[in-house]
């Protein structure tokens, strides 16, 4: 199997709106090259976009373990946990991402989770 060509195909699937197809192509590549962070990140995004939240969480935690300063992995992990309804677990990752990089979408996600937690703390 030509891993580079499979990665390119997976990226095409992902960009074409088929994250499930992309994830199927990426899984064996991550297995063959577990240290390749670009492939693992794309797999995490494909899992997230196809609502395979457990798979996304697993891949993102590996990325963060490898590089705790990866703001994007923290952000997407926070979004994954938010999407799973695990707001308290999402909050630290979203805060870290927002502190590490000033991005509007990072700030938006952080505010959304803080607001949700604030409203539910009052109930």
Short description:
With about 120 residues, this protein is an all-alpha fold. Helices cover about 80% and strands about 0% of the residues. It is elongated, with a radius of gyration of 15 Å.
CATH architecture of the largest domain: Alpha Horseshoe
Using the coordinates above, name the CATH class of the largest domain.
Mainly Alpha
The rounded Rg comes to 15 Å
Record field, number of beta strands: 0
The percent range for helix content is: over 70%
Tally of alpha and pi helices:
7
Average pLDDT figure: 95
Poorly predicted tracts of residues: none
Q: Please give the alpha-carbon distance between the first and last residues.
A: 55 Å
What is the name of the CATH superfamily of the largest domain?
A: Tetratricopeptide repeat domain
- Seen as an oligomer or otherwise, the chain set is single chain
Compressed to H and E, one letter per element, the order equals HHHHHHH
How many domains make up the 3D coordinates?
Answer: 2
Overall 3D form = elongated
CATH third-tier fold name of the largest domain: Serine Threonine Protein Phosphatase 5, Tetratricopeptide repeat
Biggest sheet details? none
Q: What fraction of the residues are assigned to beta strands by DSSP?
A: under 5%
- Strand-pairing-aware structural class: mainly alpha
Protein name: Tetratricopeptide repeat protein
Pfam families: TPR_19
InterPro entries: TPR-like_helical_dom_sf
